[in-house]
From TrEMBL, chain A:
Boundaries of every Heme-copper oxidase subunit III family profile domain copy: 1-199
Record protein name field: Heme/copper-type cytochrome/quinol oxidase, subunit III
A Pfam family the protein falls into: COX3
Phylogenetic placement of the source organism: Bacteria, Pseudomonadati, Thermodesulfobacteriota, Desulfuromonadia, Desulfuromonadales
Family under the similarity heading: Belongs to the cytochrome c oxidase subunit 3 family.
UniProtKB/TrEMBL annotation, chain B:
Spans traversing the lipid bilayer: 39-59, 79-109, 121-143, 163-185, 206-231, 251-274, 286-307, 319-337, 358-381, 396-416, 428-447, 467-488
Gene that specifies this protein: coxA
NCBIfam families reported in the protein's UniProt record: CtaD_CoxA
Biological processes, Gene Ontology terms: electron transport coupled proton transport; oxidative phosphorylation; respiratory electron transport chain
Residue intervals of the Cytochrome oxidase subunit I profile domain: 26-531
Lipid bilayer topology: Multi-pass membrane protein
Organism encoding this protein: Desulfuromonas soudanensis
Protein name, UniProt field: Cytochrome c oxidase subunit 1
Enzyme Commission no: 7.1.1.9
GO MF term (any one): metal ion binding
Amino acid sequence: MSLAPHRDEAGDRLGMWLFLFTELLLFGGLFLLYGVYLARTPEDFIRAGGELDLVLGTANTVLLITSSLTVAVAVSALQKGARSLTLGMLGITVLCALIFLVNKGFEWRAKIDHDIYPGSKRLLAGEGGESVFYSLYYLTTGLHALHVLLGAALLGWVGFRIRGGRRDGEGAVLENVGLYWHLVDLVWIFIFPLYYLIL
Amino acid sequence: MTDPTPSAAGSDRGFLARKGEGSTILAWITSTDHKRIGLLYLYAILSFFLVGVVLGLLLRLELLAPGRTIVDAQTYNALFTLHGVIMIFLFIIPGIPAAFGNLMLPLLLGARDVAFPRLNLFSWYLYMTGALLALTALFTGGGPPDTGWTFYVPFSARTTTNVSLAVTAVFILGFSSILTGLNFVTTTHRLRARGMGWGRLPLFVWSLYATAWVQILATPILAITLILILAERLLGTGLFDPARGGDPIMFQHLFWIYSHPAVYIMVLPGMGVVSEIIPVFSRKPVFGYWAIALSSIAIAGAGSLVWGHHMFTSGMSDMAILVFSFLTFVVAIPSAIKVFNWVATLYKGSIALDPPMLFALSFVLLFSIGGLSGLILGAAATDIHVHDTHFVVGHFHYVMFGGTGFAFFAALHYWLPKIYGRMYNKRVATIAWGFMFVGINILYFFMQVAGIRGMPRRYYDYLPEFAALNQIATVGSWILAFGLFLMFGNLLRGVLSGEPVGANPWGGATLEWTVPSPPPEENFSVEPVVTHGPYDFREAGVL
Ligand code: HEM
Ligand SMILES: [Cu+2]
């Protein structure tokens, strides 16, 4: 027996917010470790952090902020019934996500080429704090990249739903996926200063 | 009966069977009806519980005599790990919320289902996937995990046994738990019947609500901790390895930031069950409704701040020890508030010692023993003496088994007649309860005594002077097991062929008793309007 086709958009949104809390806390564990280890070995962290590529990091920050904007535009465009604008905005967002991932790939590649990755000879020979820094760097940005990938997939999926002309509550679905995307952006807004700027 | 539209009065087997397509296995495992999902959980959870009990009995059998009795050291390590993982992650954490929360929450709220029925079914699939992976970990890879359910580093990062798979399994189980919590919070906020203000929520709902918040806010920390173990094992990140700048104590912090609140995921729902049962079988409105309701929230809040008491002996600053010790004592206050209010509800009530009530009352006693021995562990000075001894093992079994386990059995005896429409044999239930109550006390009391005298935990061997205490405890485990056997046999018989009961066999005033037993699909034929509190027996017309 299926439930009557009655939607509770406020309920859906509440559920989404609760889920977003859990995502924040998931990353929170990594930030906690970052804080503790930074306090213990600030010099090592500063030395290691100085080697990250500020240009690529900044480019990625700009990309994600832009994509948050385009998602927001997509949501309100759909509310006004501007379907093709919505689709266009979603397209740009997904594109930003993909470029972000490619950049991230280059960044990782360059580090790995310099023999910097968990358990590499260079890190094993160096200071403990440096090794911890890079382990956290790979874990945090890796986990974040996975979220970018998932978010982009979700955005693509809503895009296809909207293009297919599904009407039942697609606005609410897009809004929730948009919220998820803002979360991905928000987490990066913490990662960027911690890893690239303050050190 | 072939009428496809369910009518509350018409079908006597309710949601359990619509004739035809509704009763196949496929119809069950694709159903989004919260009651069916609740039963799916119940069956799975009880099966794992029985496996866990057998493992526990084997542990006790090994401890019957000093030296090797039935298994060697490595097997003993695998056995207690498996016993712990099953009991914690497959039985006691999901136990009451996933099984009875799903079965009863919408009924208690006057709703047709939970807020996200399909997500609910998905959570069950996650639970089953996690559970089956955990069992697979036994038979594949480098042998069953041997770390204990706490997965402490550095051992868990180095052992060649199948820890990675077990950790993945627990990760998936955690995800299931998060989704259940999220569903329950949303359901409680959005789907209360008309007239059901926060002051009229049944206390079981309050406890589920508080639990759900803990599930949502604490479980992600476990998730990241498990990811870190995997990274440590598979990528060699060294975050907890002192040789590489890491610190194993950080692992313990992260682990207990989840796992201490998880203790409240385990026990709060049990307290909720007891808060439902005691007023009904005292024929009296509950004493201190708001005190019980809000103390659930207080326990959830304060309980999130005390994780450090698991680490008094692993090296923390004296200040930190002092603070965590103090906070631990603070959590005892809301728990004690509950106990006092239950006792005050009993006072001058006309008490009916039916099986649900017996289990509920023994919950209060056993939980109190467990809680008070917890204070001995929460005080740093005494903890250093009994840390990692059988005193601790006795303590948490009193809380988890004597507490939550007995609350689970209370819920079984209280609500199964509602779910199946049939009653078990009450006399046999009482006898079974007697065996279990005696058995559990012999088992764990003597474990605590052995612990105070210095018997360490997680050892398959011991000095001869502990032999007598261990033998008594092992005999206790047999008495307990016999009681369990009798109880489950009796419940099964009741469910299959017991006397039919009406809608309200116990005279409860909450909404689930207003619908037929078993409840129809979608619960209510007309949307209920709530006009009195959950324990206003007079206004409900049952007193
Ligand atoms: C007939 C029932 C049970 C018996 C005989 C039993 C017995 C035992 C024994 C002998 C140990 C090992 C102590 C040691 O060497 O350190 C143990 C550990 C444990 N038990 Fe039970 N138990 C039973 C039920 C339960 C239940 C219902 C729960 C939880 C709800 C539970 C949770 C645990 C946990 C978490 C551990 C710790 C495992 C570890 O050290 O990693 N047990 N139990
Ligand atoms: Cu604790």
